[in-house]
């Protein structure tokens, strides 16, 4: 009998029910406030709607629970009810599984504890658990995927790429790992290779907003703004409440000189994520530097830029650069000079400093900065794109990014901005991606 099958009676005998708090009013519908988070611990756990079996949850899935009725919990992700015997509260998972491992170590128990630790962002212990599961004979794609996510979080991108490569060499249609490797390559600056993976991810799962958003980031990094806008629009068709896709699309619209469209996207994104520093910075820059008179709003640009600089204690060069542009737009050139000089100090020897020095000269000449639309290269299909020459791209591994930003496909991060030497505002990183690389379920 396999290790996976041995685990189930042990888990049931251990009784997860003891890990759940008692609820008053048994037999009544209770709203869980705050919602609870749990790990699915059994193979193909039934998901019910009334007396009807509507789906099965995979072992290792992490689910949110919002309602309770006796020993049943309702998950909006699963759109149905799951019995407590199939669930383990996430906040109790590590100690309960540790007791189980002490009594009888199995590959599945180690995988489940590793998944619990990933959800708690304990990357080192999680990786050790997955390595233990591997030593016990488990080698399914989910195990390698989770190891890859942990390795990346631990600052070991080469090891992460080896894990992704090992999966994709054997299972080229494995969507989570195709996405994971594409996002990792994106974060490493291997944009052409990333675009090939992310385009394949879109083909594998055309309903994934994450895949379209990440593909848009790759296209935007190549300055292929019209194609990036199309990708972000596809992401928004699938999830209209993605602030990252709205902000990224707004940035591309701005680069093409479509200031009104950019303004609409930034405003919509901020409604969804009003505290985002990067979105407020991008909007402030547009309001200060747009070539369209009806879009520029100096007073609002100053208010936005002053707020984000205060929140970051004047330590972010890009935000200070935006503040300087806002002051200049408002005719406050002395304040603009002071802000951009501080920005130059924060930029150090980076190329952003050269562009900021050019703007300093403009402010000294009492001239506000107006951004010109970016030049757009001709469109090219991923297959026609030249291969990256840097190491670590999809090399055979013995036969190996959430979104985002890694474990929870929050892969590329926020949209900090940079200005190039020709004064075109471009993104310093691949862009915003709110998708998160969730742990893959335990192998069957």
Explain the overall architecture.
With 444 residues, this protein is an alpha+beta fold. 52% of the residues lie in helices and 11% in strands. The chain contains 17 helices and nine strands. The protein has helices spanning 3-14, 90-103, 107-119, 123-135, 141-153, 157-170, 175-187, 191-204, 209-221, 225-238, 243-255, 259-272, 277-289, 298-311, 317-329, 333-347, 351-364, and strands at 30-40, 45-49, 52-57, 62-69, 72-75, 80-83, 87-89, 417-419, 425-427. The strands form three sheets. It has a five-stranded antiparallel beta sheet. Strands 2-3 form a two-stranded antiparallel sheet. A hairpin with a 2-residue loop joins strand 2 (45-49) and strand 3. Helix 5 (141-153) packs antiparallel against helix 6 (157-170), helix 6 packs antiparallel against helix 7 (175-187) and helix 11 (243-255) packs antiparallel against helix 12 (259-272). The chain is elongated. The two termini are 12 Å apart. Residues 1-19, 22-26 and 382-430 have low confidence and may be disordered.
Summarize the structure.
It is built from 17 helices and 9 strands.
Helix content: 40-55%
Strand segment count: 9
Could you tell me the mean pLDDT?
Answer: 84
Query: Over all CA atoms, what is the radius of gyration?
Result: 25 Å
Strand content: 5-15%
**H and E string:** HEEEEEEEHHHHHHHHHHHHHHHHEE
With helices defined by DSSP (H or I, 4 residues minimum), what is the helix count? 17
Main sheet specs: 5 strands, antiparallel
Strand arrangement within the widest β-sheet reads 6-5-4-1-7
Question: Unreliable runs, pLDDT <50, ≥5 residues?
Answer: 1-19, 22-26, 382-430
Structural class: alpha+beta
| Principal-axis shape | elongated
The end-to-end distance, rounded to whole angstroms, is 12 Å
């Amino acid at each position: 009998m396999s290790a996976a099958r041995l685990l189930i009676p042990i888990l049931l005998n251990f009784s997860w029910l003891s890990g759940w708090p008692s609820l008053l009013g048994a037999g009544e519908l209770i709203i869980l406030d705050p919602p609870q988070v749990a790990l699915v611990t059994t193979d193909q756990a039934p998901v019910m709607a009334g007396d009807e079996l509507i789906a099965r949850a995979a072992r290792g899935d992490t689910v949110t629970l919002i309602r309770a009725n006796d020993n049943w919990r309702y998950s909006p992700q699963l759109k149905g009810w799951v019995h407590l015997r199939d669930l383990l509260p996430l906040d109790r998972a590590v100690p309960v599984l540790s007791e189980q491992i002490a009594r009888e170590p199995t590959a599945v128990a180690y995988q489940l504890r590793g998944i619990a630790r990933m959800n708690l962002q304990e990357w080192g212990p999680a990786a050790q658990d997955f390595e233990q599961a591997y030593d016990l004979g488990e080698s399914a794609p989910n195990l390698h995927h989770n190891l890859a996510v942990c390795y990346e979080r631990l600052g070991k991108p080469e090891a992460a790429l080896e894990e992704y490569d090992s999966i994709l060499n054997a299972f080229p249609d494995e969507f989570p790992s195709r996405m994971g490797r594409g996002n990792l390559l994106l974060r490493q600056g291997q944009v052409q290779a990333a675009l090939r993976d992310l385009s394949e991810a879109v083909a594998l799962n055309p309903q994934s907003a994450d895949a379209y958003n990440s593909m848009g980031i790759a296209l935007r990094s190549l300055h292929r703004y019209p194609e990036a806008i199309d990708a972000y629009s596809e992401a928004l068709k699938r999830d209209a409440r993605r602030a990252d896709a709205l902000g990224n699309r707004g940035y591309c619209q701005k680069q093409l000189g479509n200031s009104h469209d950019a303004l609409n996207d930034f405003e919509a994104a901020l409604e969804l994520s009003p505290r985002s520093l990067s979105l407020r910075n991008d909007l402030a820059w547009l309001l200060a530097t747009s070539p369209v008179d009806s879009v520029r709003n100096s007073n609002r640009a100053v208010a936005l830029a002053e707020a984000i600089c205060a929140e970051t204690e004047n330590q972010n060069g890009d935000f200070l650069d935006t503040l300087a542009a806002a002051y200049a737009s408002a005719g406050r050139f002395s304040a603009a000079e002071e802000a951009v000089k501080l920005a130059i100090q924060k930029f150090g020897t980076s190329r952003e400093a050269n562009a900021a020095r050019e703007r300093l000269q403009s402010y000294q000449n009492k001239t506000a900065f107006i951004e010109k639309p970016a030049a757009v290269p001709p469109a090219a299909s991923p297959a026609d794109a030249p291969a990256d020459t840097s190491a670590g791209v999809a090399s055979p591994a013995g036969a190996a990014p959430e979104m985002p930003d890694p474990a929870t496909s929050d892969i590329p991060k926020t949209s900090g901005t940079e200005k190039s030497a020709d004064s075109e505002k471009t993104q310093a990183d691949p862009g915003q991606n709110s998708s998160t690389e969730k742990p893959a379920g335990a192998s069957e």
